[in-house]
Design goal:
Blueprint lengths: L8 H22 L7 H9 L20 H11 L7 H9 L4 E2 L6 E3 L8 E2 L1 H18 L8 E6 L4 H8 L16 E10 L7 H20 L3 E6 L4 E6 L1
Parallel strand pairs: 2-4
Antiparallel strand pairs: 1-3, 4-5, 5-7, 6-7
């Protein structure tokens, strides 16, 4: 007679844990990197609530430049404003504007009310922010995280569309001149599985510190946009 194989309770537990590990690994590989989407967002909210405190100062509220402080200078140092995309692309072909793609430390979101182009100075500033941001988080468990660019250059045509939904959009926006961009401080991409509120605060304030240091070096102006959830940054 053939003997029936019995699985001991301990063996069953080990096998179950192994299967759970395999499933989580597969989900991790195929889930979106953006912590605000999909399965990882659910896991973060249900499980990743524990905080590890970071020794990080608060810099965001120091970023309080106002439009009158810089609009005169930035409108002269940037490009002349474009009425539509055709005019903008002519400036791209003429070497006045450069296409901005994902880079070290940052990702470009899908832009609904702006175009992914900046002047040479704007591009250089963005790359410097990304480089310094990555360096500051390189020794933490959040190393490899990216911040998100949510807005760049606008045309008059785009502004008209935007004002239908946001009456606060300035008719004299520095976004016209190609040396201005917005960085979200609420959305980050990270290889870390569980993103806690402490993690988000740390990434936000590291980013603010980097921008503050560059502002102190006279390389930019910056504003902490509380209602918009972004840092508004203007190259000098």
């Amino acid at each position: 007679m053939s003997k029936r194989i019995k699985v001991k309770p301990l063996g069953f537990v080990v096998i179950s844990l192994a299967l759970i590990f395999i499933v989580l690994t597969i989900v991790s590989v195929y889930s979106p990197r953006d912590v605000n989407k999909g399965f990882r967002y659910y896991i973060n909210n249900k499980i990743g609530s524990g905080c590890i405190s970071y020794n990080q100062g608060t810099y965001s509220r120091k970023l309080k430049d106002m439009l009158p402080d810089y609009i005169g200078e930035t409108s002269v140092s940037g490009i002349s404003r474009c009425s539509n995309k055709r005019e903008l692309l002519r400036k791209v072909h003429g070497g006045e504007l450069f296409r901005i793609r994902d880079g070290r430390g940052y990702e470009v979101e899908d832009l609904s009310y702006s175009y992914p182009y900046l002047t040479k100075e704007g591009k250089a500033l963005l790359r410097e922010i990304g480089k310094r941001f990555r360096k500051k988080i390189s020794s933490t468990r959040l190393r490899g995280s990216d911040f998100k660019i949510t807005s760049m250059i606008r045309t008059t045509e785009i502004l008209i569309r935007l004002r239908k939904f946001n009456s606060n959009a300035s008719v004299n926006s520095p976004h016209f001149y190609g040396n201005t961009f917005d960085i979200s401080y609420v959305r980050f991409s990270s290889p870390k599985w569980f993103i806690t509120d402490c993690d988000k605060y740390f990434l936000k304030e590291v980013l603010a510190q980097v921008i503050w240091q560059l502002r102190d070096e006279k390389k930019c102006w910056a504003t902490y946009e509380i209602k918009q959830g972004c840092f508004h940054v203007v190259a000098r």
